[in-house]
Amino acid sequence: MTASIQELRPKAADSEKITINLGFVDLGQIDLLVQEGFYSNRTDFIRTAIRNQLDRHNDNVKKSVERHQLDLGLRHFTRQDLEAAKAAGERLHIQVLGLASIAPDVTPELARDTIASLHVLGALHASAAVKEALRDRIR
């Protein structure tokens, strides 16, 4: 019997972990609301509070996105994308609010040859070598 071998790719995270510091009283109040069943856990409370604040400032965010000409959401750059830009003699000015990702097979040299600037509000997923190659271009 031949065993089936399957390559597992790591799943791209759909969220980013952050750390916050809270006072003991605030944390206790959150725990009380969780205990009383208003929220399933601390994370549920914090996500809800953040979403409420973002909803409250939605118009301001939209105006800022337009003013700064940011791509909103997920923006993935493949090796083929960057090779096409290089062939066309283009230099990319990447501005993303959300997640910008650069494919793992993009070399540091290709990234430097094609990416003139990189401004990400949110998260940047790229190899350590590509991040280092673009360090002076990341705002």
TrEMBL record:
User: Which Pfam families has this protein been placed in?
Assistant: RHH_8 (PF17723)
Domain of life of the organism encoding this protein: Bacteria
* Coiled-coil region(s): none
InterPro entries reported in the protein's UniProt record? Arc_rbn_hlx_hlx, RHH_8, Ribbon_hlx_hlx
> What's any GO biological process attached to this entry?
regulation of DNA-templated transcription
Protein name in the entry: Arc/MetJ-type ribon-helix-helix transcriptional regulator
| Taxonomic lineage of the native organism | Bacteria, Pseudomonadati, Pseudomonadota, Alphaproteobacteria, Hyphomicrobiales
